[in-house]
Amino acid sequence: MHGAEIGMGGNMKKETGKPVISVIMPAYQAAQYLGQAITSVQSQTCKEAWELLIIDDCSTDNTMEVARTYAAADPRIRYLRQRKNRGVAAARNLGIRKSQGMYVAFLDADDWWDADKLSIQMECIRRTKAVLCCTGRELMRHDGSAQGRTIGVPAQITYRMLLRTNVIPCGSVVLRTDVAREFGFVCDQYHEDYILWLRILKKYGTAAGVDVPALKCRLSAKGKSRNKWKSAVMQYGSYRYLGYGRIQAFYYMVFYTLNGVCKYFAPAGGKQIRGVKN
């Protein structure tokens, strides 16, 4: 086992019953923002029972103290700590292995959700029978203030559409746990979440989207989305990892680049493109 669980929230099953949704929250040096992320999970209006697994990737700041404080006060929260720093993919995989719910949801420790986020997604899943459901997102500044930009999602997302641009924000996803365990996240050298969504859609067909910006996505100066060259290299590597040749990878990179320009450099106040049609 690559992670050691700290004994907080261990009485969750006894007090609240088995959860339907397991929220997986990787955290590294996240003490500054962790409380807001946790509170946004606690504020969810959905009727389904949930648990929150905070996966600490060997932080050296006060992440442990903040997480343990919340876990001590709320039996639905569990705190786990990796034995060494292994990256976000390994942290999410540990959370998936430890999850008790029928579904897993992902939320980074510096982002947060609207209160009805899980509620509208579970209703969508019941209606569409989708194995994966995502929402739109609102881009936030580093200090948490709104940029005035939202990025929407199509109601139905296909494999071919996803190849051209990643319209599925990881922090918005609700996914069947058995499907998450079937594939898992690959290493952080590539866009680990993008690869997972493509592998899932290649087997299971389509994902469902709820075009509501229920995810509040904080853009930090050090985030992958801000380093465009690094992100592009990782995107190309993702195509190669999935078995596409150089020419095919370059072909899809053209779409990726054009969509990236539209998403992150469009004038504030407008909703950006939702995806590329088949």
Helix tally equals 10
| Rg from Cα | 18 Å
Number of strands: 12
Helix content: 25-40%
Indicate the structural class.
alpha/beta
CA-CA gap between termini: 42 Å
Mean pLDDT: 87
Silhouette: globular
> Biggest sheet: strands, sense, closure?
12 strands, mixed
Structure report:
The protein has helices at residues 12-16, 31-42, 63-73, 88-98, 117-128, 159-164, 177-183, 192-204, 228-241, 246-265; strands at residues 3-6, 21-27, 50-56, 77-82, 103-106, 112-113, 132-140, 146-151, 156-157, 174-176, 207-218, 271-272. Strands 1, 2, 3, 4, 5, 6, 7, 8, 9, 10, 11 and 12 form a 12-stranded mixed beta sheet that branches. The longest helix has 20 residues, at 246-265. It is of the alpha/beta class and 278 residues long. The radius of gyration is 18 Å and the shape is globular. It is built from 10 helices and 12 strands.
